[in-house]
């Protein structure tokens, strides 16, 4: 495996960005997203990115009715550029990569496919340059966040090394949980587009607590 994580963490933001439309998967600034890349077009995308600053834009498709996702599937306007910080290739040609979230972007326009099998956009990073700064400690109720998160993960039977979560900073907790929890596509997108880490954390608490209420209501309904 090639590990790029010790290199400079502030890369040049490219004017042209290959994108990886993936339903239910969001990359957030400062977060790490492991990916198993096996489709030909996305292997080509990774190979191209490795020679061009190692940057890939993660973005969600608006509707997914078939798999694989068609080339003309509509996408959300906002995604997040990530830099490949680790890379390995399997014997059968699949790639295992990890992206580190660098900066969110708004899609200015999309290029025709042309001779490339993967999609490319002109990203507008200007609304989200704050992402390049070190994440500040948000104004959040840490105890409430942890309690809601623990109850949610238990209700969803999601394994978690809880001692590591409790020892982490609030920015790390919010970013990691927002990325790994199985929220709906629209909820994931709302978390991605939150103006600040405080807004993101408060939305995360609300999603946890609403899911728990719905879960309890469902159980109660079955008992009566």
TrEMBL record:
Location of the Lon N-terminal domain: 17-212
Matches recorded under Pfam families: LON_substr_bdg
Domain of life (superkingdom): Bacteria
Gene3D superfamilies: LON domain-like (2.30.130.40)
InterPro entries linked: Lon_prtase_N, Lon_prtase_N_sf, PUA-like_sf
Protein name in UniProt: LON peptidase substrate-binding domain-containing protein
Naturally occurring in which organism (per UniProt): Defluviicoccus vanus
